Each structure stands twice: as structure tokens, then as C-alpha cells.
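Cross-posting from the chemistry board since nobody answered there.

I work mostly on the small-molecule side, so proteins are not my area. We synthesized S-adenosylmethionine and want a rough idea of how it might sit in this target. Sequence and SMILES are below. Is it possible to get a predicted 3D structure of the two together?
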Amino acid sequence: MDRVVFERFRDLIYDRSGILLRDGKEVLVAARVGKRMRSLGLEHHSDYYQHVVNDQSGTELTILLDAISTNTTSFYRERDHFEQMTGYLTAWLAEGRTRLRLWCAASSTGEEPYTIAITVKEALAGRAVDARILATDINTQVLEQAQVGEYEPEKVHPVPPELRQKYFAKVQRPKGTMLAVGDELKQLLAFRRMNLAETPYPLKGPLDLIICRNVMIYFDNTVRQRFLDEAFRLLRPSGILMVGHAESLTGLTGGFKPVRPSVYIKPA
Amino acid sequence: MKALVVDDSGVMRRIVIGALAKADITDVVQAGDGQEAVAAVVEHDFDLVLMDWNMPNLKGIDAVREIRAMGCKMPIIMVTTEAEKSRVLEAIKAGANNYVIKPFEPQMLIDKVTDTLARASA
Ligand SMILES: C[S@@+](CC[C@H](N)C(=O)[O-])C[C@H]1O[C@@H](n2cnc3c(N)ncnc32)[C@H](O)[C@@H]1O
């Protein structure tokens, strides 16, 4: 892909999603849009760019962003976050809270929000509490996969065996045995497409906890700041924000106070 | 069956809710403008949305676009005084499934609701 065309894609993608493609990502972009171009019968990257821009409905842009975004995730990724989450949930329930609202802000194929759902279920231990988890992502394909909630057994391996027993059921599919997330977890969750670069977010607070991991690494500071300001607005006092371990928010956190690395609290 | 009724007029919302009750739909959430409607859709899973067009903050038609952009597929019925054909087409294009022009007879709204839900589940 030549430089000029790459820069156009880069600017468009940044403008519409906040994802910043650094120099040297030409090959990556070319590879990821290649398949789509072939199915459209387009030969030149510049023609594909034109096609994206011309599509008033925004569908092609969605397809482009789906192709560009990296969706790596796993159950119990950065496990200590879920241990801390258990701690907070237990404390909140002990305070007598009867309404819990959590938001997983870049939920990818569902491993992360289902891990949160297991954590919430286990903390509730049968208590009748109005608990909801919102899971959002910009990528429509991963959202659809997440809603189906079926995973290859190897993927579910990080889930402790007794919890695997409790919350997953074996289903036979053409590609083999899969583990399907049960309804009791699904009932806690709502999956919605949402672009973190577009503020204000269409959310009604107050939220108790926001977890947004391994997506800000793709944003520059402007978009990160936008997200953090919105997170601050939406959290209730003493609400918690968890970010990825690799994501340093130095100088950006505004009113947030660090509790430990990658965990922040909105002061009461 | 859970429904969202969106209208900036409380009187109008009551009329719509009254009609829905006759169709045995009693689990209803209300929103007073498009922005509230989008926020409600983020929070709840609705089986049906009834959406006014002209409202402050976010117009009904734009709320429909946002709801569709979030990946929600529940049926949406526009309930509006906008009667021109071009408006109806615009709403359908934005992602509405059906259209009711105000003022309406309650029975007519019930029929449209039943019809829309039947088509959605077909
Ligand atoms: C590397 S995955 C991280 C998934 C999960 N949070 C985790 O830590 O395992 C990044 C996700 O962010 C999503 N994403 C990228 N840009 C986004 C944006 N502007 N708004 C919302 N989601 C975005 C991608 O679609 C992808 O699913």
C-alpha cells in the first residue's frame, strides 16, 4: 500500500474510531482490507478508500473498522482484576447495595464480560440484587460472537473447573464440541455497539464499576482523555475504573485516584 | 414482553401505554426524548419500541438510527404526526418497522403492534 493511501486510511480510521495506526502498519492494513477488496472486486487500495468514503450509510466503514481492530482477549485475562472485583462487590453488597451496574467498555468476543458475569454471580451467592453488566464494542462481528457465547474448550481453560461445570454446557457443533455460556450469565448482560471515540456516551449513570482494558493502547491521548472524562462523569462517587496493566494513564486521570496500578477510584 | 414508550408529552405516553395494556403489554418503560430513549435501550432489553418523531435533545428518527447502530434488532414503531410519505420512507430507511400517524384510534395502534410483533417473530 503506498504511503499516501495509507495516510488517508489512517486519518479516516483515527477520525471515526480513535484508533491510531502508527507508521509501519501499512502491511497490516493492506492484509486486513485485502479480503474485503477481493470480494468487492476492487484492485487498488485507493478505490477501496473511495468506496468507504462514498458509502453514506456507514456500513462499509463498519466493515473496515471490523477488519482493522485487534480482538485478542481471553477468560480471566489479568486475573488479579477479578479478585479485586470480587473484593469490591462483596464490600458493596455488605453495605446493603441492591443495584449494581458494571460496564465492560471493549468487550471483544465476550470472554471478558462473561468472566465479569461469573465474578458477579459468585459474589451475589444467590442474593436477589438488581445487577446488570453492559458490554460494548465498536466491532459488530465480535459482538455477535459474544452474544452467541460458544467457545472452544481450550479457550475456556482459564475458568476454574468448578465454575466451568456450573456456568457452561457442552454443545455439539459442526466444528466439534463447544462450551456454551448458560442463560444465568447471559441474563446479566446486554451487548451493544458503542464507539468509545464518540462522546458523550449514550449511557445513564451512575455506574459502580467500569472496566476498559487493552483498547486505550490503540488511542492517542486526546481520545484517552475523552474516555476518562466520560468514565468519571458516569461513575458514582467511590466507583471503580479498571484499565489494562500495560496502559499507563500518567497525567490523564483528572479526578481519579489510583488505588493500585491499573485500578482507580472516583473520590467520594 | 417489555416495551419502551418514547414521547415528550406525558399525556401521549399515557395514551400509548393504555393502548398497549389492552394488548396485554404492561411491562413498560417510558422516555421523554430521544436521548433518554437511547440510554434506556442501552440499559434494558426491549421487545418493542414506540417512538415519537419530534422531541427535544434527540429526535425520534435519530434515536432510531442510534438504536440500530448499537446492533439492536427489536421492532420499532414510529408514532408521529409526520404524515408525508417521504417521512414514512425516511423512518423505514432509518430502521423503523412500522408507522402510526397521530392522532390514532387505540384499536389501530393495537393492530399495528400485534402485526409488527407477529412479523418480527416470523
Ligand atoms: C485487544 S481487544 C481487548 C478486549 C478485552 N477488553 C481484553 O482486554 O481482553 C480490543 C477491543 O477494542 C475494540 N475497540 C477498538 N476501538 C474501539 C472504539 N473506538 N470503541 C469501542 N471499542 C473499540 C476492538 O474491537 C476490540 O474488540
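Reply from a structural biologist on the board:
Welcome over. Reading the output above for you: Residues A 17-19, 69-73, 77, 106, 108, 112, 137-139, 142, 195-197, 213-215, 218, 244 surround S-adenosylmethionine (CB under 6 Å). The radius of gyration of chain A is 20 Å. Happy to explain the C-alpha cell format if needed.
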